Amino acid sequence: MHITVFCSANDLDERYTKPAREFARLLGEHGHTLVWGGSHAGLMGAVADEAKAAGARLVGINVGMLAHRSYQHADELVMTEDLAARKALLLARADAVVVLVGGFGTLDEATEVVELKKHGQHDKPIVFLDTDGFYDGLRTQLRRMESEGFLPVAMDELVRFAADGAQALAYLEGCSG
Fold it and tell me: Would you list the DSSP string of 108-173?
């Protein structure tokens, strides 16, 4: 399975880095391909390093303005013209999407793939790895949007939240088989 991972390119506290590395290790050990933003920086680099060490194939999809941060050990590195093209290709190359912790860029990527799924543009599973309750607020907001009629599709049909990498991967593998 090609699993696209959205996450931060910042250096983060170990409480976020360790679970992300654990997920990346499992991804590699289970024979999956990591598709990610193609950066060596921060959490993106840590995830790529761990997945590679565990045997995963790495497909990096970077953008020209961030070429200086490209991961040099990717099995495949694709450069896009802009962030919109990058997001489109990250989704196109995915069988599933996992959202790790991140900032505005991660949230932008995640909300776009959820919106596209809501409109039937894809049916790929999307999982938020809710490390240390990082996405509790988002889950609460989505539940409110659902209960007040803002989501024409049930939240659980759009996204799932996982407590750890093993739970996230088990859900994805259950969807593919």
Answer: HHHHHHHHHHHTTS----EEEE-GGGTTHHHHHHHHHHHHTT--SS-HHHH-EEESSHHHHHHHHH
Round to whole Å and give the CA distance between 42 and 13. Answer: 10
State the pLDDT at residue 29: 97
Token pair for residue 9?
Answer: 């390119």
For the entire predicted model, the pTM comes to 0.95
Name beta bridge partners: 99: 6, 128
CATH number listed for the domain at residues 2-170: 3.40.50.450
H or E, element range at 107: helix 104-118
pLDDT tens digits along 116-125: 999 999 999 9
Among the listed residues 168, 161, 109, the one whose alpha carbon sits nearest the alpha carbon of residue 135: 161
Amino acid (one-letter) located at 16: Y
Give the pLDDT confidence of 62-75 residue by residue, as tens digits. Answer: 998 988 999 999 99
How many C-beta atoms surround the C-beta of residue 11 within 10 A?
11
The pair phi, psi for residue 36, each rounded to 5°, is -150, 180
